[in-house]
Amino acid sequence: MKKEGFVSKVYRENPHLKPMLRHIQRSNGGKSVIRSRVEHVFADQTSQTGLFIRTVGITRATMRIRLANVVYNMRRLVFLERISAIA
Fold this sequence. Notes:
Blueprint (H helix, E strand, L loop, with lengths): L21 H27 L9 H29 L1
């Protein structure tokens, strides 16, 4: 991965019965921020739009995911516009 320029986004576990090193804690914290943002989007799409892909063919599945992303982005835009109008 390093040779190709990729960075691991997997959490490092705490050593058994030892305190976790400070740089590992910071690394896990940064990864947690990214993961939480992504997981909230997926959770919203599955709960609100009922996103469950059962299609024949990758083209139809891709289109369904894209449409779900458009719906999520539009709902998010409306939400942010309402908040900015209140403030």
